[in-house]
């Protein structure tokens, strides 16, 4: 009789098989790490010997959110993108821990198991909060940090972000499940894309088709609403933590050079928090894209890739200057 671990691995493989939105040049694999099984999307670098990068998606997203950017970065880094537990092709964690710490634990275990660290670590939205925790807790795993519209606590949340936050309230997912029971996946996919894009006219037919296919498959999973609701609640809970556990306090502990990318048309994360972030992260470069929304890496992948390349050059020069100041050759 197969063990629980074997059953979980088989379920993960079945989930990953034929997962929608896998582009040419990409592969998806599942990997067992202590206590969980994770799906990882990979795009090989264009040349050998590139430094590794790991990309972490936002709330309700998946590794597919990084496909366009990974394609732009094939000459710069070797890209892998994780499906956080309960999202994409990753099964839910056995502990049902969807807190920011729980997701950070998944990223840390993947990096420890893979032996690729330190990596260039990317995060969008919820993923930005997650990788901030990772960089603060395990600086040995992170070469650089790139945060795209990171979900950090704001003094005055945007009104357009409030409905998303309400998903984390007790009983909200049951109500949403009932209210959307007859809603076609295409309609929900379009609503999500229109929320996160700065200019919905930039949503290509291919992107919409892939988003619709992924939404249809995910809504059929028995843990779809649980992973969404509990991850939202976990993020809101992280916003209430104070002292050393505060996300802003942990940002101040990050040692890695940090690239901050914000969209001026973001309906979920205000540009005002960009200024606070640029002060909180020690060595940081701030880029604001005037036409971008919440997912700049999907909407403007070439511009984000260009900003990352410039950032790497600046970080290398700064590292050399620090080495000279310390008397290192």
Automatic annotation (TrEMBL):
Entry annotated with the keyword Hydrolase: yes
Domain of life according to the entry: Bacteria
Keywords in alphabetical order: Hydrolase
Keyword Hydrolase: yes
Molecular-function GO term, any one: hydrolase activity
Cross-referenced InterPro entries: AB_hydrolase_1, AB_hydrolase_fold
Residue ranges constituting the AB hydrolase-1 domain according to the UniProt record: 54-300
PANTHER family: ALPHA/BETA-HYDROLASES SUPERFAMILY PROTEIN, LIPASE-RELATED
Protein name: Alpha/beta fold hydrolase
Naturally occurring in which organism (per UniProt): Streptomyces millisiae
